[in-house]
Amino acid sequence: MYDVPIGVFTSIDAGLGVNFEVVCELGLKSIQLHTPQRETRTSESASSFLYKLCEHNIRITAVFLGFEGESYETIEITSQTVGFVPSKTRAARLVEAFEISDFARLLGVTYIGSHVGFIPHDRRSNEYAEVVESIRSLCKYLRKNSQSLTMETGQESVQSLLTFMDDVACDNIFINFDPANLILYGVGDPIEALKLVGKRVRGVHCKDAISTTGIAGVDWGREVPFGSGEVDAVKFINTLREVGYHGALTIEREIPEQPERQKEEIGSAVKLINSIKSKIMY
Ligand code: MG
Fold first, then answer.
1. CA of 181 to the centre of ligand 1 (A)
2. Does residue 1 lie in a domain region?
3. Which partner for 252 in 91, 119, 189, 205 could form a disulfide, CB atoms 3.0-4.6 Å apart?
């Protein structure tokens, strides 16, 4: 039996992930939290949310950063709007990330997840150096709150991600491994990638996808329920065990406009993951 918790995304107020009631209905004890809106990031709302978590014996494994103006409509728009790479919004988002880190601290959360953005390809460019510097200052801030950064996989190959993390050169920078993103963005085989970065993984998204029929890296692949796409769920979870991962397996399925379908699909993913976990004998 591979004894790690299964989790799901939820929010306090952001309208993403599943409703808290669904977390309870599914009997899950682990969540990742989308960034709450600014007006909700208060000690009062942290206390009342913690009370709810305590009542149901649920633990938050990470708060995921999200900013106004981000859009995943196409890969091109994603590269222009997401994370700390777009220069126009970088400084303001950094300040906001510090605020979110402070709020996460009130919740006792030690991992902050982030889509950093499409890391510039040219390591000698000013842009690359600026993004490295921004993420370094984020890591330094998180360190003061006893937190670490987990970078979401997918927007570049894991080799580029590793090089970037080494250039940031902080001891509190890790990876949140999302196998579907590698397929969606067309940047490599998720299982091989996981073997390569396994030791640095501190969070996992159980998400699935099918490669694009258009041009890889330009056209999106398609996200599908976990277990029904190109991510080999059995191999994925067995490889997590092999690389020594012992954190939560957080199911990610963002279709909040179809809450019934979302609940059903997440419920099926829970069953699938439990069955795979139970067959792991070491
Ligand atoms: Mg993800």
1. 7
2. no
3. 205
Query: pLDDT, tens digit, for every residue of 109-159?
Result: 999 999 999 999 999 999 999 999 999 999 999 999 999 999 999 889 999
Distance 207 CA to ligand 1 centre (A): 7
**Domain range for residue 243?**
6-279
What's the first-to-final CA gap in the chain, in angstroms? 7
User: From ligand 1's centre to the CA of 264, what distance in Å?
Assistant: 19
Those residues whose beta carbon sits under 5 angstroms from the ion ligand 1 are: 178, 205, 252
User: Residue 12 Cα, ligand 1 centroid: separation in angstroms?
Assistant: 18
Q: Which residue type, as a one-letter code, is found at position 250?
A: T
For residue 208, being part of any structural domain is answered with yes
The CATH number assigned to the domain holding 137 equals 3.20.20.150
Q: Tell me the one-letter amino acid at 183.
A: I
Residue 204: strand, helix, or coil: strand
How many domains does one find in the chain? 1
Q: Model confidence over 245-269: pLDDT tens digits?
A: 999 999 999 888 898 999 999 999 9
Tell whether pTM > 0.85.
yes
Eight-state DSSP code of residue 18: B
How many angstroms is it from 48 CA to the middle of ligand 1? 27
Half-sphere exposure of 115 (CA within 13 A, CB side): 21
